Amino acid sequence: MAKAYMVVCYHSVSDEEALKAYAKIAAPATEAAGGRYLARGNPAKTYESGLDQRTVIVEFDSVAQAIAAHDSPGYQAALKALGNGAKRDVRLVEGLG
Asked: Helix or strand or coil: residue 76?
């Protein structure tokens, strides 16, 4: 079964306190659901049309596990804490394996 990756790209953050509240809840909820953080932060370097924006990459054992983590009550509580504090997009990508 191929692994899956949750890629979160932040377009803007309008409320740093909401982001901190989100992170305090999201990280433990994601890890409890089997997620493993691989990268988190601003790009070291960008190329082509790359944007210098915060990016988070989380690995899961499968797409089903990634979906279950996102839809879990714990992660949904984190999203509620974030509210409109950031504009971002979340992508679930299946690995090649």
From this structure: helix
Burial of 82 (0-12, 13-18, 19+ CB in 10 A): buried
Domain containing 21 — which CATH number? 3.30.70.100
**Tens-place pLDDT, residues 16-32:** 999 999 999 999 999 99
pLDDT recorded at residue 1: 82
Q: For residue 93, what are the CA distances in angstroms to 17, 74, 86, 97?
A: 29, 21, 22, 12
Number of domain units in the chain? 1
- What span, in angstroms and rounded, lies between the C-alpha atoms of 32 and 55? 21
Helices within 1-97 (DSSP H only): 16-32, 63-71, 73-82
Please give the backbone phi and psi of residue 44, each rounded to the nearest 5 degrees, phi first: -70, -30
The Cα 76–Cα 8 span in angstroms is 15
Residue 10 in 3-state DSSP? strand
Tell me the pLDDT of the chain averaged across its residues.
96
